[in-house]
From TrEMBL:
Entry protein name: RING-type E3 ubiquitin transferase
Catalytic function, reaction form: S-ubiquitinyl-[E2 ubiquitin-conjugating enzyme]-L-cysteine + [acceptor protein]-L-lysine = [E2 ubiquitin-conjugating enzyme]-L-cysteine + N(6)-ubiquitinyl-[acceptor protein]-L-lysine
Domain RING-type: 310-349
SMART domains linked to this entry: RING
Organism: Acorus gramineus (Dwarf sweet flag)
């Protein structure tokens, strides 16, 4: 019994229920969506090949050698900086500058125009002339005559190395050989002799003056149309008082005269005042116009050169005057170097027209 039962189970296997889902009805079923289309391939642009860019080539400089010079400060060592050569400037073509092309190795700006040449400046040496009589033009005055208040007398200070004479002219004009003639015959010149001496006081003798009230102020304050000056002072040295050597060295017709030309001014009821226009020196037939030089004081002693050094080198004494400004401010060597670089006075910056080297016996001004 037992065997038949087991065989029956083997012959008829037991069917187990499956767990598959039941099919859905046709009314609720939907097919799956179709797959997405593949993406389009990326665009492929084809262009013709471009030529490589043309860059300007720079000049190839050789590699500088390592610096040989160095110096050490503390724990640091410094080497000298090497210098690199600059490219040469292209030469001008037909006298005109041609700029380099864009493909050139270097581009340089046009050279600046050359500076204009400096004007020629004459460098002369002054001729030393000894003046025996000198009238101090700043001391000329007009004083009232005590005997006649309407009359005015001329007074001033002068220096004389020899004897001579002083002549006072009124309204006189210059003639040949520095002789003067008056425009009014009634006004006679006054001549007074003097002896040699320094810082002498001259005063016209009483009774020989002039009444300035007869003349308009305009006629007194300027020269006339015929170049007649209201006041002329002529100081003449006498050759008779010269030494024997000086008389032999001069010609027989040698005359030394210093002439001062002035006008007379009067303002707002003030007393008459003398204004010097110029001074003339007549020596041995030559006429010289005296001009005041700026840069040296006459009151300084001759052996004291303090403050009289050249303003450029500060070593050599001043011995060169700049014209027309008349500044004595340089030595001769610095003056020559100055005109090679500039034509301006180092004091006032005015243009220099002429240089005048002035030396005395000691070699300085």
């Amino acid at each position: 019994m037992g065997q038949s039962t087991s065989r029956r189970r083997d012959d008829h296997p037991q069917i187990r229920p499956s767990h598959q889902p039941h099919p859905l009805s046709s009314s609720s079923y939907s097919p799956p969506p179709p797959p997405p289309p593949p993406p389009p391939p990326p665009p492929n642009y084809i262009y013709p090949p471009y030529p490589p860019p043309c860059y300007p080539t720079r000049p190839s400089h050789p590699i500088p050698s390592p610096p040989q010079q160095f110096y050490t400060t503390g724990s640091y060592r410094y080497f000298a900086r090497p210098t690199y050569p600059y490219p040469p400037i292209p030469p001008p073509a037909n006298g005109r500058w041609v700029p380099p092309s864009s493909s050139s190795s270097s581009y340089l700006p046009p050279p600046p125009p050359p500076p204009p040449p400096l004007p020629h400046v004459e460098h002369e040496k002054a001729k030393t002339i000894k003046n025996y009589v000198n009238v101090h033009k700043d001391t000329i005055r007009l004083e009232e005559d005590e005997s006649d208040k309407d009359q005015h007398l001329v007074s001033f200070t002068f220096d004389a190395l020899v004897d001579g004479s002083i002549t006072i002219h009124y309204f006189a004009k210059e003639e040949a050989d520095c002789n003067f003639s008056g425009e009014y015959p009634d006004i006679m010149p006054v001549r007074v002799s003097f002896q040699k001496g320094v810082a002498q006081k001259f005063r016209q003798p009483s009774g020989t003056g002039i009444d300035l009230g007869f003349f308009p102020i305009d006629d007194l304050s300027k020269p006339s149309d015929g170049y007649a000056f209201p006041l002329v002072i002529s100081a003449q040295a006498s050759s008779q008082s010269l030494s024997v050597d000086e008389q032999q060295s001069q010609p027989d017709s040698a005359v030394r005269v210093q002439i001062t030309l002035a006008v007379i001014e009067k303002k707002n009821g003030e007393p008459y005042r003398v204004k010097v226009i110029k001074q003339i020196l007549w020596v041995e037939g030559e006429r010289y116009e005296l001009q005041e030089l700026f840069g040296r004081s006459e009151s300084e002693p001759e052996d004291d050169n303090s403050g009289q050094e050249c303003v450029i080198c500060m070593g050599e004494p001043r011995n060169t005057a700049v014209l027309p400004c008349r500044h004595v401010c340089m030595c001769s060597e610095c003056a020559k170097a100055l005109i090679a670089q500039s034509n301006k006075c180092p004091i006032c910056r005015q243009p220099v027209e002429k240089l005048m080297e002035i030396k005395d016996k000691s070699g300085s001004l």
